[in-house]
């Protein structure tokens, strides 16, 4: 294992060099002291050449993936590939004894998630799903507020997450291939409802709608879902690829409510507005470098032989709900969810607050709206 100043560093390969990897993941390694970027994977020769030089990391084509896994040169793969490739690349890494940090959604189906979990367990490697908000101060402080009783017994969760996605973006692939608004954006709302309620839904009902726009020939333009939780609590959200960029969250209790502006952002400020008995309390939090935080956390788990909290089971929990939501939207009927137990949930003890850094220039990549 590589070492700097006598300290062990976990060696990472980033697999997939699209927008999110280039804008946030690659530069994040410079902000860590226990992790090192040593390899890059892409099918784009220009990306390999330029980013390899920029980050002083070896660059590989995808056909070299298995050879690199068995080379002894890497400890972890950070998988930032399209959703339908997550399972295959995770299983191959696990079978080679390499740990996996996989972007969300974990996979397209529950069966793929379970295959990934088994591969990690059978090969004694760690699997973490990249839920960056589990290390974010504003979101984990919201958990503390929700559990403190300050706003009373929790009753309602409501959220909107939207953006206008450019034609041809991978997010617009068929839902059966992991495209669609709920896999990409709704998953944030689902996960937030689960960590704020500290529970799992047992029934969902959803509808999808699309304009007459060729962008949405294969995926939904927007989906609204209602999730029923134990204790007769309700969570509802709308995710959209065809509306102006916006994100908001509101948690209502019997005594008051908590509102969050930009709750799912990794840039700028995340804001709390707490209202109890007509008294308003407001607070802002810097988004911080959430990607460096999750890398630091996962490397610590490896170095200390601890299981990560946003585990494969956490990824599976969301994917099963996403699948039920799309089933409900298709059948226009409520869908019951089987029992699902989660012992480990994110909390403020996981917060790793780091200053954000300026995004680098991108190489043949653009954000979902089409901006370079």
From TrEMBL:
PANTHER family per record: OXIDOREDUCTASES, TRANS-1,2-DIHYDROBENZENE-1,2-DIOL DEHYDROGENASE
Domain Gfo/Idh/MocA-like oxidoreductase N-terminal residues, every copy: 10-131
GFO/IDH/MocA-like oxidoreductase domain span: 141-258
Keywords: Oxidoreductase
Family the entry assigns: Belongs to the Gfo/Idh/MocA family.
Alphabetical list of InterPro entries matching this protein: Gfo/Idh/MocA-like_OxRdtase_N, Gfo/Idh/MocA_domain, GFO_IDH_MocA-like_dom, Glc-Fru_OxRdtase_bac, NAD(P)-bd_dom_sf
Name assigned to this protein: Gfo/Idh/MocA family oxidoreductase
């Amino acid at each position: 294992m590589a070492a700097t100043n006598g300290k062990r560093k976990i060696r990472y390969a980033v697999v997939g060099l699209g927008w999110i990897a280039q804008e946030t993941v690659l530069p994040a390694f410079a902000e860590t002291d226990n992790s090192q970027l040593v390899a890059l994977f892409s099918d784009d020769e220009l990306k390999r050449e330029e980013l390899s030089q920029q980050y002083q990391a070896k660059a590989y084509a995808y056909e070299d993936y298995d050879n690199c896994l068995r080379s002894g040169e890497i400890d972890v793969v950070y998988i930032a590939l399209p959703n339908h490739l997550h399972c295959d690349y995770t299983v191959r890494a696990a079978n080679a004894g390499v740990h996996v940090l996989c972007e969300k959604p974990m996979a397209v189906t529950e069966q793929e998630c379970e295959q990934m979990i088994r591969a990690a367990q059978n090969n004694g490697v760690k699997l973490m799903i990249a839920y960056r908000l589990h290390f974010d101060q504003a979101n984990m402080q919201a958990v503390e507020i929700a559990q403190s009783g300050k706003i009373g017994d929790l009753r309602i969760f409501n959220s909107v997450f939207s953006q206008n996605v450019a034609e041809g973006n991978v997010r617009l692939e068929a839902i059966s291939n992991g495209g669609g608004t709920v896999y990409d954006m709704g998953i944030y709302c689902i996960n937030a409802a689960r960590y704020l309620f500290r529970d799992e839904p047992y029934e969902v009902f959803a509808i999808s709608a699309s304009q007459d726009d060729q962008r949405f020939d294969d995926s939904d333009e927007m989906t609204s879902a209602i999730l029923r939780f134990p204790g007769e609590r309700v969570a509802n959200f709308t995710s959209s690829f065809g509306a102006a960029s916006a994100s908001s969250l509101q948690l209502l209790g019997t005594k008051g409510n908590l509102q969050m502006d930009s709750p799912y952002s990794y840039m700028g400020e995340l804001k709390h507005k707490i209202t109890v008995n007509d008294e308003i309390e407001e607070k802002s939090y810097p988004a911080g470098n959430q990607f460096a935080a999750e890398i630091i956390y996962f490397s610590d788990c490896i170095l200390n032989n601890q299981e990560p909290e946003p585990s494969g089971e956490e990824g599976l929990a969301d994917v099963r709900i996403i699948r039920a939501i799309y089933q409900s939207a298709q059948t226009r009927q409520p869908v019951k969810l089987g029992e699902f137990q989660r012992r480990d949930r994110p909390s403020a003890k996981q917060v790793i607050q780091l200053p954000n850094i300026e995004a680098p220039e991108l190489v043949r990549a653009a954000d979902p709206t089409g901006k370079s």
